[in-house]
Specification:
Number of strands: 11
Largest sheet: 8 strands, mixed
Strand content: 15-25%
Distance between the termini: 20 Å
Order of helices and strands: EHHEHHEEHEEEHEEHEHE
Strand order of the largest sheet: 3-5-2-1-8-10-11-9
Bound molecules: adenosine-5'-diphosphate
Number of helices: 8
Oligomer: single chain
Length: 247
């Protein structure tokens, strides 16, 4: 089984509220040649902009419940669009919104994913708002969900699709002289600086998750989804521009 992550940065325009990159998204869905997958997608501008403006990360209270509901609705809307495109492509996609069945701090309900997988479905989950005991709520990124799924379901590989060629020694969108690294070790020191609103930790957290996955024996790589065929080649385990994270 392979977990594929469509980053919010590649399937949406992270700077414009609820703007999908429809052409990119459709192409990425057509590049999904392997059917034994779990698809995880980011929230992009369907989640980060409102969550950040309404400071949802500080927790749930009487005055922001409507914001919690709104973000949950917005990201579910993005998810519905993606699931519809997968069904159009004749993939038996099934939506798994974690706000509806997970509470942070409790065991991750991975068995439900397993039950769908063994029947040949393609479970699709995404970065979402989730209940939590201490603060009331937290924002759970797609990358964090992948960490939980991988812990229990032990995929052979995890492929992250984002809007840059891979991991550079520093943010390539800010530094013109940034150098792409083909292989990165989990404990290498890299400079991460976000250029857009990301309430869940951006590339830095992604790199941490990738390092933990690699250390548990999973083949982990990140490729640029804005460039045609990179995802396809990565899925086929062929030589492709990107970054592998190794222990
Ligand atoms: P996604 O939404 O695709 O999951 P993020 O937006 O969280 O991904 O992370 C991708 C972004 O991370 C890139 O667009 C880039 O601007 C930023 N970034 C920061 N530091 C780095 C780095 N060292 N190498 C690559 N990208 C970086």
């Amino acid at each position: 089984m392979i977990i594929v992550k469509f980053g919010g940065s590649v399937i949406t325009d992270k700077k414009v509220y609820k703007k999908i990159r429809t052409r990119v998204l459709k192409r990425l869905i057509y590049e999904l040649t392997d059917e034994n997958i779990i698809l995880v997608h980011g929230a992009g501008s369907f989640g980060h902009i409102l969550s950040s403006d309404k400071k949802l990360n500080s927790g749930l209270n009487d005055s922001n419940m409507i914001d919690f509901s709104t973000v949950a609705r917005d990201v579910q809307k993005l998810n519905t669009i993606i699931v519809s495109m997968l069904i159009e492509r004749k993939l038996p996609a099934i939506s798994m919104p974690i706000h509806s069945f997970h509470m942070v701090g409790e065991n991750f309900p991975y068995t439900k994913f397993h039950e769908y997988l063994i029947r040949g479905f393609v479970p699709v989950t995404y970065g979402d708002v989730v209940l939590e005991r201490k603060k009331g709520m937290v924002i759970c990124s797609g990358d964090q969900i992948i960490f939980n799924l991988a812990k229990y379901l032990k995929p052979e590989r995890v492929i992250f699709v984002t809007d840059v060629d891979g991991i550079y020694d520093k943010n390539p969108k800010i530094h013109k002289d940034a150098v792409l690294m083909k292989i990165v070790h989990a404990n290498d020191s890299i400079t991460f600086d976000n250029d857009v609103k990301d309430v869940t930790g951006g590339m830095e957290l992604k790199f941490k998750v990738m390092g933990l996955l690699a250390s548990s024996g999973i083949d982990v790589m990140i490729v640029n989804g804005l460039v045609k065929d990179r995802l396809k080649l990565a899925l086929q385990n062929k030589d492709v521009i990107g970054t592998r994270v190794v222990p």
